[in-house]
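Consider this pair:
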Amino acid sequence: MAAHVQHHPEDQEFIIDQNGAGAELAYSQAGDTIDFTHTYVDEELRGKGLAETLAKAGLAYAREQGLRVRTSCEFMAGYVQQHQEYNDILA
């Protein structure tokens, strides 16, 4: 299942919409720090890698914007721990 990530900076979220069901990665930003605060995937879409797709998109955005990353979200904290290529942007 190909997933297209949309970034809505006005709502501070990255989302995936799949025929009315969806997934989101919420964040807050203060200065040069972005804090990924919450990840949610609708039940019928779980297990399809959408949270990982959102994580990659959010972290790519942080890197492109020169932001430092915090991970209040448990999923995101685990993700960056398993993917040490993001250590250089962690706050």
Remarks:
- Strands lie at 5-8, 13-18, 21-30, 33-41, 68-71.
